[in-house]
Amino acid sequence: MSAPAFPTGSILGYPRIGPRRELKKAVESFWAGKTTVDELEATAAELRASTRERLVALGLKADDSSIPEAFSFYDQVLDAAVTVGAIPTRFADLVAEDGTIDLAGYFTIARGAGQNTPAEMTKWFDSNYHYLVPEIGPETDFHLASDRLLRQVAEATTSGYTTRPVIVGPVTFLLLSKPSEGAPEGYQPLDRLDDLLPVYAELLAGLAAVGADWVQLDEPGLVSESIDVPRERVLAATKQAYELLSSVPIRPQIFVAAPYNSLGDALPVLDATAIEAIQLDLVRGSLPVGFSTTKTLVGGVIDGHNIWRGDLAGAFSTLESLLELSPSVAVTTSTSLFHVPHDVQDEPLLADQLKNWLAFADQKVGQVATLASGLIDGKAAIQGELDAASAALDDRHSAVGVRDGAVRERAAALTESDFTRGDYAARLAAQDAALGLPFLPTTTIGSFPQTGDIRKSRAAFAAGRISEDEYREAMRAEIRSVVELQEKIGIDVIVHGEPERNDMVQYFAENLDGFAVTQNGWVQSYGSRCTRPSILWGDVSRPSPITVEWSTYTQTLTPKPVKGMLTGPVTILAWSFVRDDQPLRDTANQVALALRDEIVDLEAAGIGIIQVDEPALRELLPLKKKDQADYLDWSVGSFRLATSGVGEATQIHTHLCYSEFGVVIDAIDKLDADVTSIEAARSKMEVVPDIQSSGFGRGIGPGVYDIHSPRVPSVDEVTQLIELALGSIPERQIWVNPDCGLKTRGYDETVESLTNVITATRAVREAH
Ligand code: GLN
Ligand code: ZN
Fold it and tell me: What keywords tag this UniProt record (predicted)?
């Protein structure tokens, strides 16, 4: 019997969190000790079962490996790490005698415990998803430490499905890892490929034994050019890995997926091995030139990263072109669908016209099924669906609000001077005089814990149960208590705590023209955390001031400077689903102009410090070097456009949070913010010397408190971090602040942590 062919229509992955965030709720209730591990396992199994059922209802087949077995309790990279036994030594006691690690142990690596800091978190390619960075050293004892994937495949088989297990491939796994703490200088995780591959081989054999016909190994690491390993080494590792894995005697057929861009020179390398199928991202990436193969080419033509219904006829013709490269072509998504929400039909409040332009995960599965029918039965069989998608696209192009004359005229009239502020030395002097801050000024990044009461007031207001005045008073009460707390702890620059914001992007989207917001459109950001990206569908403008009232109210409560708080244009774009019918540069400038108006209004209302958050600046950086300069030019430009309307004495702050600054260090400088706060605590200030050696001369606040975990940093720990910063940065530049906002934290840990931060700062001030 010949091996089963690759399914003509499939998806790389599906949202894991559940249509009503069932997984989030189950996981958090387990963490809170309210449910047992068995209850959590049962909820997860139910979710997997209903996903399989749903995918079949949407047009995938139950028995042809088209359904990905891509569930995760927290993160797919952590899953891979735990599967291959890559457990950091500080968590060694989580490993049982037989070498396995249980679910509670798995969560502990993600969340930390006691003095054991959790694994570091960083952005997953050019997306807003964060993965946990594996730590690999000479001591890492690779072995099959979890049979979870095998059990999930067996679970599917038992209920009548032949699914396709998905795991991060070995090369990407090592490329995304960092050397463990004790690893020798110059050590690279990729040095351990020889030892890792046998574990993958064993896993493949195990998957065959539980009935998997195909396995999907995700290798997006091969498309990225932002990885610090010479390309020849990446290619050699690819060759070695897939020659070895394809030589496993009894194994599923191997499907290597390369989402997020083109494989480039890794494609012929993969093709030369004995794997059976390769996915190409034909949305971000392009058709390979001068390449042909007898392997199955799986065209990722449905955008897994965005929510537009798009050009289905164009997608089909891309598949037709792919048929010129291989006699065997199948259709899939460009990336896993876990970047998009479940279902457009689950959005009763969205206008029907807009809904007709959109496709969430379920609609995209339908599109894949349609294109698969076209591949099997010919284009004529799906002409009706192709035409309907084209008609929706035409309707979108000509709809009211998609183009606004006044917005376009203003953007067209911009000149260089709209993008520049005065000389920094003059600004510094003016700001010092205006603000009179102490050495090592302290501040927070903006949000304070979003308590149940805040959420309740917001929900009550949204549902019309309380009046606008009652809502405003509830928020003001919250602001008063946050200001009082900051004064009591002794923080120098005060924030209002952002209680009125459901989300740092959605809040602005709700107050700007050109956006729509969803009710159930959650996507996973990391672990159990989800965000609800807004939909930027039309030209953007600001009908009226947004934050001015909150900031000015806050300033009436304290003599200390209050920091106004806005989300920057790049982050608004990155964390929304953005129109794809014009260059991002144009969209970014429209958003920037709306924010510029807000910033000028804040200044006029007496707010002397304004922070414009750009945590997503690094995230949108294109994976291919050739595209990066243009990106950095427009992204930095839009930030400058937003912030250049103010006078010298107004201090512009920005906040960036992720741990890989390398490629954007120059850009951070070009933003020309007066003060930049960055994430640095988890990596123990690793980035600080780099920033310094790049010649960065303005204010910098490397985070001294990792807010991603409930752990309270000790005074000593914070003191050491401040001293580390002082070791490589001139002291007048340094600010002291947490890594990020506090909205996800509880009050007890927040108060304790901030108190420790201030105690440490005072000690360091005295010692210097
Ligand atoms: N000002 C925002 C906050 O404190 C920044 C959040 C972020 O960087 N993600 O919540
Ligand atoms: Zn942040």
Answer: Amino-acid biosynthesis, Metal-binding, Methionine biosynthesis, Methyltransferase, Repeat, Transferase, Zinc
* Contact (CB, 8 A) for 676 and 651: no
User: Other CB atoms closer than 10 Å to residue 562's CB: what's the count?
Assistant: 28
Query: Do 48 and 146 contact (CB within 8 A), yes or no?
Result: no
| C-alpha distance from residue 756 to each of 32, 462, 761 (Å) | 25, 37, 8
743 CA: nearest ligand 1 atom: 10
256 vs 239: CA distance, rounded Å: 13
Q: Is 618 in the pocket of ligand 1 (CB under 6 A)?
A: no
Residue 49: both structure tokens together = 């079962």
Range list of β-strands (E), 174-285: 178-179, 214-218, 253-258, 277-281
Quickly state the pLDDT bin for 660 (edges 50, 70, 90).
Answer: low
Among this protein's residues, is 653 annotated catalytic?
no
- Per-residue pLDDT reduced to its tens digit, 98-152: 999 999 999 999 999 888 989 998 889 988 899 999 999 999 999 999 999 999 9
CA–CA dist 70, 55 (Å, integer): 13
> Strand order in 576-578's β-sheet?
513-516, 534-541, 576-578
DSSP code string of 445-467: -SB----HHHHHHHHHHHTTSS-
Measured CA to CA, the distance from residue 536 to residue 355 in angstroms comes to 13
Distance set, CA 243 to CA 291, 298, 542 (Å): 20, 20, 56
pLDDT surpassing 90 at residue 269? yes
Q: Which pLDDT does position 123 carry in this prediction?
A: 87
- Amino acid type, 726: L
Environment class of 435 (CB within 10 Å of its CB; exposed 0-12, middle 13-18, buried 19+) = middle
Ramachandran bin of 32, using left for φ above 0, alpha for ψ from -120 to 50, beta for the remaining angles: alpha
Residue 279, strand partner residues: 257, 298
Tokens 């048929």, residue? Answer: 323
Instruction: Go through the chain and tell me how many residues it has.
Output: 768
Cα(17)–Cα(27) distance, integer angstroms: 10
Please, are residues 703 and 737 in contact by the beta-carbon 8 Å criterion? yes
Amino acid letter at 621? L
| Angle (nearest 5°) at CA 585 between 582 and 587 | 60
207, two tokens? 């998957």
Ligand 1 proximity of 446 Cβ (cutoff 6 Å): yes
Three-class secondary structure of residue 248 per DSSP? coil
Average pLDDT over the chain reads 96
Write the CB contacts of 644 (distance below 8 Å, at least 6 apart in sequence): 418, 419, 420, 421, 596
Q: Cβ(447) to ligand 1 under 6 A?
A: yes
pLDDT for res 638:
98
Pocket residue to mutate for ligand 1, from 121, 128, 443, 445, most atoms within 8 A of Cβ? 445
pLDDT for 370-391, tens place per residue? Answer: 999 999 999 999 999 999 999 9
Separation of alpha carbons 61 and 11, rounded Å: 11
Residue 516: partners with Cβ closer than 8 Å, 6 or more residues away? 350, 351, 354, 509, 534, 535, 537
List of residues 6+ apart from 361 with CB closer than 8 A = 14, 15, 337, 340, 341, 342, 343
Over residues 633-658, the mean pLDDT reads 96
Helix (H, G, I), strand (E, B) or coil at 746: coil
Q: Please identify which residue in the block is written with the tokens 């400038």.
A: 589
Sign of dihedral through CA atoms 90, 525, 570, 447? Answer: negative
CA of 446 to the centre of ligand 2 (A): 9
Position in ligand 1 atom list of the atom nearest CA 615 = 8
Task: List the residue whose alpha carbon is closest to atom 9 of ligand 1.
Answer: 615
Neighbours of 59 (CB within 10 A): 17
Q: How far apart are CA 33 and CA 35, in angstroms?
A: 6
Q: Greater confidence, 687 or 629?
A: 629
Q: Of 447, 448, 571, which is best to mutate to test ligand 1, by the most ligand atoms within 8 angstroms of its C-beta?
A: 447
What is the value of ipTM here, to two decimals? 0.99
pTM of the model: 0.92
